[in-house]
Design brief:
single chain; 269 residues; alpha/beta; 2 domains; 9-stranded mixed beta sheet; 6 helices
Length: 269
């Protein structure tokens, strides 16, 4: 089987290296990932007059690595358009392993999920993978190493019945012994409040200076959980050391609300 791996943390991130190691026994791997960090890009693509730089960075038997100076979804498009023959799609696209959880409403912003959505748009089995730790070490991925192969085996053995499915999998940042199990669940709702604060140049960090008349801010914020979240939604289960699997559909159509709108007779004065 041919497998495409991508992410939004960049081709040099620890998570993508660990993922390639985990799935190496499953088939031929091509890694196409952003040149730089592209978090929060959702399904954005690099378009217009901006050239998109790409480079092969390594080529070993059964495993090739490329970077693309673009968004995660653009990496998937590059693979589909340039690296594979027309109609010759991969058997599986994996996006991750993201540094930080992509559960609940965070999935709406996630470049990790966005890349998987781009793959699903091409009719490919697509899985987004995240670890609930923004600054993971090699040891933090051990629960992914233990549980992911079995999860993927079962997903591949039972293909989706509808077009456009993305399987969003989040792993708690705990040892395998502490993981309670795997639960298929619905996403919860989280909100960010007090999201912007004034920019401060920190030693060792990025440095920025405002132009005349500008004020600089950084996106930070605090997270609040919706009070109506179900006890068994993903954000609550992750906090209880469960691995969560949520089926998302890129065709975000709400049939019930559509029917309600019909009843409003919008075209009648």
């Amino acid at each position: 089987m041919r497998i495409l791996i991508t992410n939004d943390d960049g081709y040099e991130s620890l998570g993508i290296k660990v993922l390639s190691e985990i799935v190496r026994p499953m088939g031929e791997i091509t890694v196409v990932a952003p040149k730089t960090v592209q978090s929060g890009m959702s399904m954005a693509v690099t378009i217009g007059g901006k050239p998109i730089a790409a480079r092969k960075v390594s080529d070993e038997p059964g495993e090739s690595w490329y970077y693309v100076d673009g968004t995660p979804a653009s990496c998937v498009k590059y693979y589909m358009s340039i690296l594979c023959a027309e109609g010759d799609k991969p058997g599986l696209v994996l996006s991750g392993i993201n540094h930080g959880g992509n559960y609940a409403s965070a999935a709406l912003y996630s470049g990790t999920v966005g890349a998987a959505e781009e793959a699903a748009l091409s009719g490919v089995t697509a899985v987004a993978l995240s670890l609930d730790n923004l600054y993971p070490t090699e040891e933090d991925f051990e629960c992914v190493r233990v549980f992911l192969p079995g999860i993927l085996e079962k997903i591949l053995a039972s293909p989706a019945r509808r077009f456009g499915m993305v399987y969003n999998i989040n792993f708690p940042a705990v040892s395998p012994e502490r993981v309670k199990g795997v639960k298929v669940c619905a996403p919860g709702v989280i909100r960010w409040v007090r999201e912007y604060e004034g920019w401060v140049n920190v030693p060792g960090g990025p440095v920025a200076y405002p132009e005349e008349g500008e004020s600089l801010f950084r996106m930070q914020g605090d997270v609040e959980l919706d009070e109506d979240n179900a006890p068994d939604c993903d954000v609550n289960l992750i906090a209880e050391d469960w691995i969560t699997v949520t089926a998302l559909n890129i065709m975000s159509f709400d049939a019930d609300e559509n029917e309600r709108l019909r009843g409003l007779k919008l075209g009648v004065r």
